[in-house]
Amino acid sequence: MKSVVYNRLRRIVDASRVSDAIEDRIVSSYDASRIKYLPDVVVKIITTKEVSEILKIAYTEKVPVYTRGAGSSVTGSAVPVKGGILLDTSLMNRIVEISPVDLTAVVEPGVVVTDFQKEVEKYNLFYPPDPASADFCTIGGNVATGAGGLRCIKYGTTRDYVLGLEVVLSDGRIINTGGGTLKKVSGYDLTRLMVGSEGTLGIFTRIILRLIPKPTAESTISAFFDTPDKAIEFGVLLLEKGILPRSLEFMDRACLMAVNKYRPDLKIPPTSQAMILVEFDGQPEDVNNQATQSCKLLEGIQPITLKRAVNKEEAKYLWSVRKAISAALYSITTQKISEDICVPRHAIKPILSYLNEIGASSGIPVAVFGHLGDGNLHINFLVSNPSDRAFGTSKEQEARLAGVLDKLFTKTIKLGGTLSGEHGIGMTKAKYLPLEWGRDEIELFRAIKQLFDPKNILNPDKIFSQYDVWV
Ligand SMILES: Cc1cc2nc3c(=O)[nH]c(=O)nc-3n(C[C@H](O)[C@H](O)[C@H](O)COP(=O)(O)OP(=O)(O)OC[C@H]3O[C@@H](n4cnc5c(N)ncnc54)[C@H](O)[C@@H]3O)c2cc1C
């Protein structure tokens, strides 16, 4: 990047927030995918005007611009693959307004999700989107990735709570989409287009969110089974009875055994082949009825153990198994490739048995957990398991992994599913996009990208960029 650009940036933003020091560049060079590329300069933005002025320069000089929330993306979507300017939103983190009358809030993009959830609860309000990374990821990142989480079966995803956005376009123009009303059918729905756009169409500088009244009661239940089919069967039965939990989580034996090794204090029954965690919320009487009915259904399926939390402490304890999975898997492998396919609920059983098949034939250990309620499964390939001697060299691993991923994604699409339920495409899944979308759809995506970002400076080389013809 030319030094003239750097000097101009320092005239727009206080010098203390613009840095080309190697330590600042390294900190912003990677996300949770572990892919790394150094940006040329890191700018900690705090106002919309700054973002607009920076983009005017980037547009004129054709410098790539990458926006970073907390860098917790698992697909490389936050990685500055072409260098250039990295806009860090961590200081742009004010909760501007919470309106108990309108049930809305206005926030800046760098607000951390749990900080926001805690703040709205002071008004007896509830912001349901709850990614497992909520303690550190930002609302801006959630909007840009269309983040899901643990409560989607009942409450939907981040997409369902974004009412409007202030967006800075690639040439520095500032636009507004949507607004503060629950209903709005005026013009095209640019808000929906922006949600999940992974920083490729514009930079969000303000976000209007929908809130709902806070549920007054919660109930959590966990059960271990001697076969995964029983867990799946329970999910179907529950919904058939018209009972809608807010979370319905699944863990397979590989996850449970990893957690057992990592947290023996959680006392996972050694014969467990699967676990479900189900949680209800709402009015106390309803919640109690739903939890009681669920326990009856579960007893009918004969789980190994069944526990119903009687207080918040116990609920937290039941959740510990689910929350320990990521760390537990890293404790048994040096690397894991995590995919987040989503299939219609009827296809959960077929995709799980297909995974057993391809896991066994490739020799790659697979661990699966996820959201049984919405069909979004986190499939972890443990590619560098030191104890798995049969696995061979890393080149062989890569070839085998590529074959397995091809098979997994092809089968997922065949079953009516999608490559990503919540993490997005980023870099890691870009080459698989044509499995899910035809030529006409990808052409349309490209045309939209070109309209919003004619010089391809916003998060270039992401989502479908190998099909870009105008670069
Ligand atoms: C342990 C762990 C658990 C996770 N659990 C979940 C889960 O349950 N559900 C889920 O959906 N995801 C989950 N994730 C993935 C990740 O947390 C989400 O994708 C999250 O939305 C990313 O937010 P972030 O602030 O870290 O954004 P980043 O990773 O910094 O950025 C993600 C994308 O958003 C863009 N972006 C960020 N801010 C803006 C902005 N203001 N304007 C425009 N574009 C912007 C970036 O350019 C990038 O493309 C998990 C990740 C980890 C590590």
Description:
The chain has helices at 3-12, 22-27, 48-61, 113-121, 139-145, 152-155, 190-194, 228-240, 253-262, 284-301, 312-323, 325-332, 348-362, 394-414, 433-436, 439-452; strands at 18-19, 41-44, 65-68, 85-88, 95-99, 104-107, 125-126, 162-168, 174-178, 203-210, 212-213, 217-225, 247-252, 274-282, 305-308, 336-339, 366-371, 376-382. Helix content is 36%, strand content 20%. With 471 residues, the protein is an alpha+beta fold. The longest helix has 21 residues, at 394-414. The chain has a seven-stranded antiparallel beta sheet with strand order 15-12-14-13-17-18-16, with helices on both faces. Strands 5-6-10-8-9 form a five-stranded antiparallel beta sheet. The chain is globular. It has 16 helices and 18 strands. Flavin-adenine dinucleotide (FAD) is lined by residues 31-32, 66-74, 77-78, 89, 109, 131-133, 137-138, 140-142, 144-145, 147-149, 198-199, 203-204, 326, 422-423, 459.
Shape: globular
CATH class of the largest domain: Alpha Beta
Largest sheet: 7 strands, antiparallel
Bound small molecules, deduplicated: flavin-adenine dinucleotide
Number of helices: 16
Distance separating the two termini: 18 Å
Strand segment tally: 18
CATH architecture of the largest domain: 2-Layer Sandwich
Helix content: 25-40%
Give the helix/strand class.
Answer: alpha+beta
Strand content: 15-25%
Radius of gyration: 23 Å
Average of the residue pLDDT scores: 94
As laid out across the biggest beta sheet, the strand order is: 15-12-14-13-17-18-16
Task: List segments where confidence is low: pLDDT < 50 over at least 5 consecutive residues.
Answer: 467-471
CATH topology of the largest domain: Uridine Diphospho-n-acetylenolpyruvylglucosamine Reductase, domain 3
Q: How many separate structural domains?
A: 5
